[in-house]
């Protein structure tokens, strides 16, 4: 089975929780807009939303994964905000609790940025983190 990358993600450690909320993950307006754009593509037909997970990778231990979600798993967390659905993989729930998902675009790069208060350290490039 091959995995296709649908978006890139970087991580930013923050000192404290940014917004009080009961949601496991908070999306900024730019992230909501980008998820809507991704889900409107022809290849996204038949999927219910994006799935966020973590996997062991990089120089600091963990990195985020983004993929299409065809169904919500039994223990997965579902976040619905402003008309988009994001599924959080059961293995990523504790590491994402209280995180803000943003989409940032500049002259050199564009991608999702996770502002995560649970992170203890990140690598220099910002792609991997430790909890």
- Kindly provide the radius of gyration, computed on alpha-carbon positions and rounded to a whole number of angstroms: 14 Å
Q: Flag low-confidence runs.
A: none
Q: What is the number of E strands?
A: 10
Strand order of the largest sheet: 1-8-7-2
In N-to-C order, the SSE pattern is EEHEEEEHEEEE
Contiguous helical run count: 2
Strand content: 35-45%
Give the helix level as a range of percent: 10-25%
Structural overview:
With 131 residues, the protein is mainly β. It is built from two helices and ten strands; from the N terminus they run ββαββββαββββ. The chain has helices spanning 29-39, 93-96; strands at residues 9-13, 25-27, 49-56, 62-69, 77-81, 84-88, 99-105, 110-116, 121-122, 129-130. The protein has a four-stranded mixed beta sheet. The protein has a four-stranded mixed beta sheet with strand order 4-3-6-5. A two-stranded antiparallel ribbon has the order 9-10. The mean pLDDT is 78. GO terms for molecular function: 2 iron, 2 sulfur cluster binding. InterPro entries: ATAP, ATAP_core_dom, Fe-S_cluster_asmbl/transfer, FeS_cluster_insertion_CS, HesB-like_dom_sf. Residues 25-127 form the Core domain.
Give the helix/strand layout:
Blueprint: E1 9-13, E2 25-27, H1 29-39, E3 49-56, E4 62-69, E5 77-81, E6 84-88, H2 93-96, E7 99-105, E8 110-116, E9 121-122, E10 129-130
Parallel strand pairs: 1-8, 2-7, 3-6
Antiparallel strand pairs: 3-4, 5-6, 7-8, 9-10
Protein name: Iron-sulfur cluster assembly 1 homolog, mitochondrial
Family: Belongs to the HesB/IscA family.
InterPro entries: ATAP, ATAP_core_dom, Fe-S_cluster_asmbl/transfer, FeS_cluster_insertion_CS, HesB-like_dom_sf
């Amino acid at each position: 089975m091959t995995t296709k990358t649908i978006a890139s993600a970087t991580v930013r450690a923050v000192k404290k929780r940014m917004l009080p909320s009961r949601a496991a993950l908070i999306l900024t307006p730019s992230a909501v807009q980008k998820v809507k754009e991704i889900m409107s593509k022809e290849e996204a037909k038949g999927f219910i939303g994006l799935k966020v997970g973590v996997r062991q990778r990089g120089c600091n231990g963990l990195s985020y994964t983004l993929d299409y979600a065809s169904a919500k798993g039994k223990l997965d967390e579902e976040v619905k905000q402003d008309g988009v659905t994001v599924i959080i993989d059961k293995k990523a729930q504790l590491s994402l609790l209280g995180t803000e998902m943003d989409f940032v675009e500049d002259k050199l790069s564009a991608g999702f940025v996770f502002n995560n208060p649970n992170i203890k350290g990140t690598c220099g490039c910002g792609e991997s983190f430790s909890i």
